[in-house]
Amino acid sequence: MTKTCSASPRRKTDAKSYKIHPAWFVAVIAFVALVGAAGFRATPSVMLRPLHEEFGWSLGTISAAVSVNLLLYGLTAPFAAALMERFGIRRVVVGALLLVAAGSGLTVFMQSSWQLILCWGVLVGLGTGSMALAFVATIANRWFVTHRGLVIGVLTAGGAAGNLVFLPVLATLTESQGWRTAALTVAAVALLVVPLVWWRLRDHPADLGIGALGGEYEEPRPIAPAGAARTALRALGQAARTRPFWLLAGGFAICGATTNGLVGTHFIPAAHDHGMAETTAASLLALVGLFDIAGTIISGWLTDRVDSRILLGVYYFGRGLSLLVLPSLLAATAHPSMLVFILFYGLDWVATVPPTVTLCREYFGAAGPIVFGWVFASHQFGAAAAAIAAGLVRDQLGNYTWAWYGAGALAILASLLSLMLFAGKRLRPVAPGIGLAVPVKA
Length: 442
Hints:
Blueprint: H1 22-55, H2 59-87, H3 89-106, H4 113-129, H5 133-143, H6 148-176, H7 179-200, H8 228-239, H9 243-273, H10 278-303, H11 308-325, H12 336-348, H13 353-364, H14 368-397, H15 401-419, E1 427-430, E2 436-439
Antiparallel strand pairs: 1-2
Helix pairs in contact: 1-2, 1-4, 1-5, 1-6, 1-7, 1-9, 2-3, 2-4, 2-5, 2-8, 2-14, 3-4, 3-7, 5-6, 5-14, 6-7, 6-10, 6-13, 9-10, 9-13, 9-14, 9-15, 10-12, 10-13, 11-12, 11-13, 11-15, 13-14
């Protein structure tokens, strides 16, 4: 669909005429796209050292390109969610995949660090940002009423599955064939996913004349002529008036700092500093993705049953403890204590997503996916800050020890912020066209 404000009603169809509700097919295609997006984001972590060795760029310089990627990955999300409302999910995702293919493929021609920032930072950042977790929220909220928390968990696990599939492959390709072969592989995979998305991804249940799984048929709500960008900015302006938004955004910023920004970007070079082979470190990071699949699905199941504020408090506190002990576990080999860390940390990696998406919908109603896009932007601000800060710590001190300790302390702070949501004021709806809420005055 190009706009959801069409005056002609769609033909209604009994969902029972389908042996399997189409929502499940949409979820499968979204999962495939998310697996690919995670693989595209995995590229920098296996190329830091090869680029450093070939071009002589400092880790701080290369980390700056990663930071730009992470920032745009987050900042694009709310606008992409609004664009999906206006122009349809399928068109936005196809455009995102083409951007990723261009950004990854063009890196093989770069000679200067600014070209790395343009390709990795800008093009790949915009592309993967359009397939970020706001995409997950849009799919889950639009296509599912029942099993929504579980679906959020499964789709979020697509990111972990992408790491699991791509990290060892990219690390092996980089070591045996060079980083250019790995970059071209990422570009090729992005292009291969495009036809699948165009063929099967549907924008809205009403396009098929049915309701969401477990819900009634609904015509898509109209999008104001002002456009997607203004809708996204208006949502931010109204959400920012509320205390829950800042608590969620603050906690999720720390989530990004302690996952993508630090561990996702710097675990491999940090392990290499202790004598561990890069392929071994990449395999350990892939194991994080394996356990994360289980952890995120379990988290989605729990989100349908347990208060999301409690879940976030527990998740962040456990992550903080694990990061505080990590410096004592790094060694030349993957000994049992490190494997225990990988198991525990993997289960917790993005388990925070299902309860955060659920709380955004609880506090901000129909605008939940767009508001979550802004909360996710804060996640990427935190990730970008941690990526460059950890690179600078390594350049200045010669090791990552204080980066791990700082991240552990921040994660415990995020646990406190999450529990502070219990003290938030009760909300009432405002701006029905957007679906936001503000605190009720006593």
